[in-house]
Amino acid sequence: MHSNSKTIKILLIEDSTTDALLLIKYFEKLEAHKFDVVRAKLLSEGLDYLQQQEFDLILLDLSLPDSLGLDSIRQIQNLVAEIPIIVLTGMDREEIAIQALREGAQDYIVKGQIFGSLLLRSINHAIERQQIIEKLRQSEARYRGIVEDQTELICRFLPDGTLTFVNQAYCRYFKKASEDLLGKNFKASVPDDTFTALKDHLNRLRVQNPTRVIEYQVKLPDGEICWQQWIYRAFFQDEQIVEYQAVGRDITQRKKAEDSLVQEATINFILAEITQHIHESLDLKIILETVAKEINQFLGSERIVIAKVENAQISDILFESVKAGANISCNLEQNISKFKKHLSQLLTSKNILLEDTFTTSKLLESLSSEENIKNNSVFLVPILTEKKLWGLIYIEKCSFERAWQQQEQELLRQISFQLAIAIKQAELYHKLELANQKLEKLAVIDGLTGIANRRKFDDYIQSEWLRLAREKAPLSLIMCDIDHFKLYNDTYGHQAGDRCLQKIAQAINKVVKRPADLGARYGGEELAVILPNTTPEGAKKLAHQIRLQVQSLHIPHIASPVDLYVTLSLGVAGCIPNHQDSPQALIAAADYNLYKAKELGKNRVVGV
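Above: the chain's sequence. Below: its structure in token form.
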């Protein structure tokens, strides 16, 4: 199953807006999963997106204005063969959808039969199948070069093992002339324990099942042990085996590659565990302890030191871990001192720290042969952030000299890379918190007027309602509406209308002075003022002040039948909140009084 912690990026190529919106709604309903859907209406537009961005999956409609049918799949695969495709088709076009699967699509969905679990299951299966196919493709490519360079070995032998035919490839492989092999028993090249198992396989061949593929080890004349894969075929006469034919090839390299893949998978698993643990915390001390613990478990090291580097010198030992009972004979201070002498050289050598990403092996080569690093007892891993040396991981195994394997070096390099990311995240965490606070403030401010927006209005009136219900104190609300604002926009233009709204919002803020009072843009040209701990009578007085303040601005409005200047109608309502009702009742009452103010001729206040 595809991890639901990762955002799945989907390219939706669908010209139907209805179908596209329906699919997007399905994705939104899958709350346990994260989807980033990019829509393209044309195939050409989708191909452009594929060249510019990376996607995990493509949802493809086969009936597009600029491409029809299977050609759409071919064009996409010619550009990005590795991204899985799910075909979207109508209920009457399942046949072409099945043909699309033969062309390389991973799945198809009938538009009229889409529902959440089906869509999610199809996406997960498509991605997993494509990943399997890609791994198989990579594996086949890896082994193809090995296999194709080999010439197959062919031999025939009697039931007692006597060779009756060998080809030249067989002779070259076993480094013997054909006359030295024919008439001899082929088991001479097979170790005894292997031959016992091989003989058991051959005895199981039957007329109905005359072939068997067998892999085993052979011993060459020079003593080298190699792996071979053989296809054995038995020839029968009167249901008795009279001869065998075998076609073989050397698979030693493949076996080594398989072992390497197993090792690689093990290292990847370890790296994933370390990465997960590192990123579970933003505390630098915990991060460093985690790294040291995981490295100790994997390498069995005796001492790990993580040092901070500043101004081309080791400025601080951030963390040190020594294995209990370890025989530490290396002098840490002496080694650190030696490393200091090389730091300036490392910092100025682009080949080591700046351009060459495999810094660990280069670092070993840069140190003199007399140092412990060189005699395989100590290993040093640079920690690079933004192409600068942030620090060093010092790993020590002094009780004996050890050879640092390539896989170990690569794992340490990857750990260093992940540690650098975690360090950067920890350093940025505080800055991120400050930025989030600023964003939260911006999220509740109306971008045009600079006063609170509707979201802030809704949250604030709800919280004040609950607070004042507990305190049994009054809450009042003023709803304001600019008279004939549409005529104003039609006469002076929308930009002038925006400036008018800004001036009126500022005028309201001049009148509303208490910290607990909130002026907000309710919607369009409608503004509102929330007045906690204010009676309706007090709110009505404040509303008159607001109306007069706006009128004193003398904003021209020649199209208004009310006045030569912009005027404001206001509705006032107030109550003592209770837990049985909601703020909506108060809003409705204020809005009703605003309607009455409009009905009575505008430019006035109506309230209790």
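The two ends are 63 Å apart (CA to CA).
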